[in-house]
Amino acid sequence: MTDVTSAKSARRPHHWRRDLIELAALFTAVAVADAIANLIGHQPDGPYLLIASAVALVATAAFHTWWARRHSHAPPPDTDTGAGLPAAGAGEGVAGEDGDGGTVLWRLRTTVRDAPGTLAALCVALARHRIDILTLQTHPLAEGTVDEFLLRAPSALPAQHLTREVAAAGGSATWIERADAHDLVDTPTRVLGLATRTALDAAELPLSLRRLLGRCTIHSLPALSITGRPTGESAPVEGVLEETVMRLRDPSGGVITVERPYLPFTPTEFARARALVELDARLGPRVPRSEDVLTLPEGNEITVRRADRGDLEAALAMHGRCSEQTLGLRYHGPVRDADGYLDHLLSPRFGRTLAVQTASGRLVALGHLLWDGDETEVALLVEDAWQRRGIGSELLGRLVALAVEAGCESVYAVTQAHNTGMVAAMRSLSLPLDYQIEEGTLVVTARLTTAPARPMTEPVTRPGAPSTLRPLPRAEQAEQH
Description:
The protein has three domains: 1-25 and 92-184, Alpha-Beta Plaits, CATH 3.30.70; 187-283, no CATH class; 291-471, Aminopeptidase, CATH 3.40.630.30. Helix content is 34%, strand content 25%.
């Protein structure tokens, strides 16, 4: 979680020079008071003058306290533009995109006492700094209430100063992070949208949970390993909530574990996540059945569609037609174990799979977009007889487009260092790439910081005919991965 600040770490710094100055002022005041007392005390009316001075000082202090309390809750004047706010310095928050004098969006969460007036005091503290409260959610706890705000604040107001003001107004365990325009959607609308996406596609459940709960890591742990042995992973029907970790029973078997560093989940968030998983369980397996018919350069037609566990038998048959070299480049391990991975890879719980089949219905290629915690992996397998025809390039472009649609920040491919075809395919995406190599294993990461990447093959449309694939430069060898 970026730009996050705890109220405990937002205390004002302690300066020893200030303590010395205050101590010196105290001794000076005592010395002056003693001199005045000795001067006045020896006169006939001296004691009466001292008593009258003490009464005047007490009355002045009482008036000052009353005046400060009266004006501390007054709304800020219209002429206050926030110019008096402290400037953002190093480590003091992030300036807004609008520049000086603009505003930024913050998502702030804090815990307050469950007592009348606590929320009002917090809102008044925010209003004093001309902070606009756009949305507010309340999460009741056994003791206290977690209030989650979406705020529009002056860009000159640092995050640490904001958390200090919230702490002074009674908030505790305060967290703050930058927000964007997508957070302006109200919570009921956002939850209904996520439920709709989950209802249409079983592969959307992990993504919907991540959008629902914010920045978190989601792991799907199967009940059976790839060898068919029980993994021992299970969870009760009602799920388990443990501070920053929640465990939910996966409808397809196993456990869905959701983790969020530092920020505990509230019972309200746990109930929302559990309802979304229950919706997925009631609807059962489902995958959108959209199909795209394409024409290869030599004239053969192929169909690109979503795949699931119903394609397991066809995928196993394709494995049987692939050479050991092709399977070794894809699975990076013993070829005899390749069949055991398919049940996991075809499950919509772990990602999305695209399949390519011929006009006769034979499966000849698979492309996988796999959810790997906070990261996303792409992987391709094309049958030997159908390589070097642009099929793998087409699948890679479509998988990257799916990753962009899902809101992924990057995708990575794991291959062997000598697999120049996969490197060429990743380079043809025209995206920023990072390379890591260790003991012959190459990891190429593409950062999805631009618009959806174009496919590595260009469809050429002919009247009355399906699209035709035309391989782009550097992509002719891209299917051997």
